[in-house]
Amino acid sequence: DVHLAVTGGALGWWLHTPTGETHYGRALEVAVVDATGAGDCFTGSYCAELDGGATPAAAATFAGIAAGLSCTRPGARAGSPRRSEVLDLLHRSPTSDEETSCA
Question: I need a surface site. Which of 20, 25, 41, 44 has the fewest CB within 10 A?
Fold first, then answer.
């Protein structure tokens, strides 16, 4: 199934499903140092999570956190967070479908 992920920087992300559902995730509130590569970080993290067996909504949630963290450091590649950093924030953030679904 094809899902469409749309990123909006400080506005967050949206995931549109083949059945017409839309999931939304708020942007991580951070002090931005450099936003270069944040979209690439989202895309790479999203694809890696899908490859690891995550659902599209869970993958987008993970990717949104990764992209936000990447903005806290200079450089596109050097600013990419480690998986453990993303997981630490993910476990402290709401991630249920009820909290991220749009009507």
Answer: 20
Bridge partners (DSSP) listed for residue 7: 13
Specify the pTM: 0.87
Query: Token pair for residue 4?
Result: 């469409």
Rg from Cα positions in the chain: 13
